[in-house]
Amino acid sequence: MTSVNIGLIGCGFIGRFHSIAIRHLIKQGLVDARYVAVCDLDEGRARSFGERTGAQLVTTKAEELIDSPEVDVVYVCVPTAGHKELVMRAAGREKHIFCEKPLATELADVEEIVAAADAASVKAGVGLILRHSPILTVLKLLTEDATIGRLMTAVFRDDQFFPIQGHYASEWRKDRWLSGSGTLLEHSIHDVDVLRWFGGDVATVRGSIDNFARHDGVEDLATAHMEFTSGGRAELVSIWHNVLRRPSSRRLELFFENALFHIDNDFMGPIGYQKHDEEPIVLSEEDVTARYLELIGLPGDPFGGALRYSLEDYFFLSKVALGEDPFPDFGLALEAHRVVDAIYRSAHAAGETISVG
Ligand SMILES: NC(=O)c1ccc[n+]([C@@H]2O[C@H](COP(=O)([O-])OP(=O)(O)OC[C@H]3O[C@@H](n4cnc5c(N)ncnc54)[C@H](O)[C@@H]3O)[C@@H](O)[C@H]2O)c1
């Protein structure tokens, strides 16, 4: 195991999330790491992160951070259109990388990024945080019951207020040149990844996108019908509305031949299910969390109440320190990007069925 030296670029909303986690994990001795550098184009933000983290290098120039011999791992937390340049440079300098999702605004750029990280043989993790969701991990385990038959269909609704206000404190998501597009890529790439987790490879999709708020090229409603190679189906509805006190909310229902499961939370919360001719069951949030911690081999919650913040960075940094491949990685993100791209292509072709190649 080696100690890793972390540099973080992008001291905004998600940068703060990771920064809190990294500091907490180091303080609790849960990862062997040093927080050595922070960067933001906005000097005040960089300085404020510098003060909190004690990082020695505080800069407005990302290349200075990436090129610094002190930095082993580069966190890329800037708006999506900025990911490619920073990831390519980090790969070119053989730095390990954690890049937020989506990896890029276009599929071709995602492919280039993934190829560059592969060619450089660096560890490359991605912010598909729901892969470390306690509720989804336990739900997945519950669905691995051979008696419940095959997955017939998943119904997934994801909605939140248009994220250009409130705790986001930024407006770039309404600018297609920075975000690439709207709710499907920016938010529901998580959902597509979760649906692949539960349903497996996607064979074909049909989709639609609409633009009620009229921000050019930034859809606020996306629907998708997905057909898995296994024969199961999924329906996804992704919405950005103006119900300003309603942040990111997800409801997932899974129907198997002999069982159904439903959740109304995407990270912590209860799981409802019913099988065969049995009564409905609700597994409480406490039970779900305890079962999850046992599953990952950390019973008793060593994260000291900061579970939600800590998991993603805990797993990524632990793997990098061990010289092992992180999960979720760039390859997994590429698969989700391929499905998202196919849904957009279908939407632009009046809902034509598109094969996911
Ligand atoms: N995993 C998740 O659930 C999740 C949640 C939120 C955001 N994200 C992703 O994280 C990324 C950032 O989103 P955000 O909400 O934190 O944005 P933000 O606007 O809050 O923060 C971005 C920061 O990056 C800085 N920045 C921009 N370009 C830069 C550059 N070239 N060099 C240095 N600093 C630069 C900005 O000044 C800003 O402070 C996006 O790709 C977004 O999709 C992921």
Quick summary:
The protein is α/β, with parallel strands linked by helices. The protein contains twelve helices and 15 strands. The protein folds into two domains: 138 residues, NAD(P)-binding Rossmann-like Domain (Rossmann fold), CATH 3.40.50.720; 187 residues, Dihydrodipicolinate Reductase, domain 2, CATH 3.30.360.
Folded structure, characterized:
By secondary structure, the chain is α/β, with parallel strands linked by helices. The chain is 36% helix and 24% strand. The chain has 12 helices and 15 strands. The strands form 2 sheets. It has a 9-stranded mixed β-sheet with strand order 14-13-12-11-7-10-9-8-15. A 6-stranded parallel β-sheet has the order 3-2-1-4-5-6, with helices on both faces. β13 (271-275) and β14 (281-283) form a beta hairpin. α4 (83-92) runs parallel beside α5 and α9 (189-199) crosses α12. The structure holds nicotinamide-adenine-dinucleotide (NAD). The site of nicotinamide-adenine-dinucleotide has 26 residues, from α1.
Number of helices: 12
Question: How many structural units, i.e. domains?
Answer: 2
Which radius of gyration do the C-alpha atoms yield? 20 Å
Helical percentage: 25-40%
List the helices and strands and how they pair.
Elements: E1 4-9, H1 13-27, E2 33-39, H2 43-53, E3 57-59, H3 62-67, E4 73-76, H4 83-92, E5 96-99, H5 107-119, E6 124-126, H6 134-142, E7 151-161, H7 176-179, H8 183-186, H9 189-199, E8 202-210, E9 221-228, E10 233-241, E11 249-256, E12 259-263, E13 271-275, E14 281-283, H10 285-295, H11 307-322, H12 330-348, E15 354-355
Parallel strand pairs: 1-2, 1-4, 2-3, 4-5, 5-6, 7-10
Antiparallel strand pairs: 7-11, 8-9, 8-15, 9-10, 11-12, 12-13, 13-14
Helix pairs in contact: 1-11, 4-5, 5-12, 6-10, 9-12
